[in-house]
Design a protein that fits this description.
Elements lengths: L8 H15 L3 H16 L3 E5 L1 H13 L20 E8 L2 H10 L9 E5 L4 E8 L2 E9 L2 E3 L8 E3 L5 H5 L10 E3 L8 E2 L4 H6 L2 E2 L6 H4 L3 H12 L2 E2 L1 H12 L8 H12 L4 H11 L1 H5 L7 H14 L2 H10 L5 H10 L4 H10 L4 H19 L7 H6 L3 H9 L6 H15 L10 H6 L5 H16 L6 H12 L3
Parallel strand pairs: 2-5, 10-11
Antiparallel strand pairs: 1-2, 1-8, 3-4, 4-5, 6-7, 8-9
Helix pairs in contact: 1-3, 8-11, 11-13, 13-15, 16-17, 17-19, 19-20
Length: about 475
């Protein structure tokens, strides 16, 4: 394709600087990369930008090129909702040694906020502040990896591996494109596995036939990249996923690793698209036989996403319930409908802990209580006030019928969540105690009464609240 001519140093440099500008780094970020290249070469090493950043830069160029802009229009590049960039740099040499040299280099104007090394894996992490914005750089020595058992973390051998050997251990061809960070070949493309070809074809393809056997979490990543980038998992890779699932390969990895992958999907701009694909591939059933993702789940996921992406609503609800977590609601919907035994088995398989299981059971129990309130809405706000906010919110995300009474009850729930829950008395416990009422339970009862009267519009000021307490509870 003639568009390949676009992938020259000047085009890449221009695209990188445009992205750096969008994040607020400006020209300083490119200068930092150049300096890292210099320090690396002075130590006898060679550095390469690799992974998601080069991939997304290439897609960015394709989105900006008239010949291909329409084809890549739907591709979401860079991490969802990012506040800063996280770059991966592969080192032909010691990542730990390079990180130390960068930190100690007195001629380097950029001083890292922190340096963390991981000797076992031959990696190091640095974070710089550029224009007050963090820029995280993960350094990793070029290496080979051996998976002694399927699903286990690999045994790493950094040895004398070169870039060509290193990329063979990676997940997908589109993530193997690298840009050199050397002085003489700064931002020159290194593409040893036809990564650019597969980007142009919008194809997710694994590096080798045992990829999912070695690391089953790559199934989740394949789906995540497919949906975020608007690509397609190729036929060969789909067959390898099926073969791995037929061997129950997900049984070889911990529940925590599966949950981590699900949470990454929940953070995508269309998490329901990822879960729908997981279900279609049979991955949900491989996690636990009763798990699925139906049309109803998709509707609820969209509601959860919309609510928590409304900054005003989210900040308000957090003001009355600080332990609200969007992931909890996604998980609650996935598990909704499982009986107690099935819920226990699922939570246990995913190693989510007794606290999460207890919270989910409480939400499901509260849902039944809220549904029963439809039969008698007298004192409804007082009744709702005694139920955990998370449960009321989860009820709001669900669809419990379309009859007139269902819709009217839903309006009550909406009013409660949008307004009633935030109504508070002007007086507090200390004010009531200062009036000579020292009994704790009575104090709480009075505050609740005042709140309900405020909801009804019968108390409109602090003076009204004081008069009410004096008349009803203070004898002359």
């Amino acid at each position: 394709m003639t568009v390949l001519a676009e992938f020259e140093k000047n085009s890449i440099e221009r695209a990188i600087n445009e992205i750096f500008d969008k994040y607020g780094y400006g020209k300083q970020a490119e200068k930092l990369l150049e300096k890292i290249g210099v320090v690396s070469e002075n130590a006898g090493f060679h550095a390469f930008l690799i992974g998601g950043f080069p991939r997304d830069i290439i897609i960015y160029i394709l989105k900006s090129t008239p010949e291909t802009s329409n084809k890549f229009k739907s591709s979401e590049i860079f991490e969802p909702n990012p506040r800063f960039l996280d770059l991966d740099i592969a080192i032909k040499g010691s990542a730990e040694e390079l990180a130390r040299l960068i930190k100690e280099n007195k001629n380097l104007k950029f001083k890292p906020n922190y340096l963390r090394t991981h000797k076992k894996f031959g990696t190091a992490s640095l974070e710089f502040l550029i224009g007050g914005i963090p820029l995280k750089i993960d350094l990793a020595s070029l290496r080979t990896e051996v998976y002694k058992k399927p699903g286990m973390l690999p045994a790493v051998s950094s040895g004398k591996a070169g870039l060509e050997e290193d990329i063979r251990r990676r997940d997908f061809t589109i993530n193997t494109v690298a840009f050199s960070v050397g002085r003489k070949d700064f931002l020159e493309i290194k593409d040893y596995s036809l990564g650019i070809r597969d980007i142009l074809k919008k194809k997710i393809s694994v590096m080798h036939g045992l990829s999912f056997i070695d690391d089953p979490t790559r199934m989740f990543r394949a789906v995540r990249f497919e949906k975020r980038l608007g690509f397609h998992i190729d036929g060969k890779t789909l067959k390898l996923i099926k073969t791995a699932l037929d061997k129950n390969i997900l049984d070889n990895i911990s529940g925590k690793r599966i949950v981590a992958e699900l949470y990454l999907m929940f953070n995508e701009k269309k998490p329901w698209a990822c879960l729908e694909r997981l279900d279609g591939l049979g991955i949900m059933r491989s996690i636990y036989e009763r798990l699925s993702f139906r049309k109803e789940n998709k509707t609820v996921f969209k509601k959860i996403f919309a609510y928590f992406n409304n900054m005003h609503k989210e900040s308000k609800i957090r003001s009355v319930c600080r332990d609200i977590d969007i992931n909890l609601f996604y998980m609650a919907d996935l598990f909704y409908g499982l009986d107690d035994f099935e819920l226990h088995e699922t939570v246990d398989r995913l190693n989510m802990g007794q606290k999460i299981e207890k919270t989910l059971k409480a939400i499901y129990c509260d849902i039944k209580k809220i549904n029963s309130l439809k039969l008698n809405i007298d004192g409804i706000y007082d009744k709702l006030n005694k139920i955990d906010v998370k449960s009321v919110l989860f009820y709001f995300f669900q669809d419990f019928g379309r009859t007139e009474s269902d819709l009217n009850f839903r309006k009550i729930i909406v009013r409660y969540l949008n307004k009633i829950i935030f109504i508070k008395p002007y007086l507090n416990g200390n004010d009531i105690k200062s009036m000579g009422i020292c009994e704790g339970p009575l104090c709480g009862k009075i505050l609740n009464e005042i709140k309900l009267l405020k909801i009804e519009g019968r108390l409109k000021s602090k003076k009204d609240e004081l008069i009410y307490i004096k008349k009803k509870y203070i004898k002359n």
